[in-house]
Write a structure and sequence with these properties.
Strand content: 15-25%
Distance between the termini: 17 Å
CATH superfamily: YqgF/RNase H-like domain
CATH architecture: 2-Layer Sandwich
Shape: globular
Order of helices and strands: EEEHEHEHH
Largest sheet: 5 strands, mixed
Length: 145
């Protein structure tokens, strides 16, 4: 009998909008699930933790915004602080996944693949970036097997 896939929540942290995505029941695909809109990281972290609990997530995958040269900067520090805030609301394990170019890819998909005008991207780009981060993480885990 096949083992049931773990439920995952993908997170693309942003100062104004935090994109979310979840894994499907088979653990094969990431599915965008909207944004948490808040300039307050404490409030946003509580909402992300609540979403994780609501969907029964067993792991929270947060995109780690590394610099292109592989170093970490201020955005990584803010993301790690955000993860610590989430941990105050849930004991669901958190893993970080290198998210370099995920938002760039999301903008490209919206523009070239879906024909969405750039000014309309902000409503969906963070959720799509979370989907890309989560799908990349899931694919990397499959390749380890």
């Amino acid at each position: 009998m096949a083992q049931k896939a773990k439920k995952l929540l993908g997170v693309d942290y942003g100062m104004a909008r935090t994109g979310l995505a979840h894994s499907d029941d088979l653990g094969m695909f990431a599915i965008a699930m909207g944004n948490v809109k808040s300039y307050n990281p404490v409030k946003a972290a509580a909402e992300v933790a609540q979403k994780a609990i609501e969907i029964g997530a067993e792991i929270i995958v947060i995109g780690k915004p590394m610099n292109m040269d592989g170093t970490s900067g201020e955005k990584v520090k803010l993301t790690e602080e955000f993860a610590a805030l989430i941990s105050e609301h849930t004991d669901i394990p958190i893993v970080f996944y290198d998210e370099r170019l995920s938002t760039v890819s999301a903008h490209r998909i919206l523009s070239e693949g879906m024909g969405v005008k750039a000014k309309k991207h902000k409503n969906v780009v963070d959720s799509l970036a979370a989907e890309i981060i989560l799908q990349s993480y899931m694919d990397s885990q499959k390749n380890k097997i």
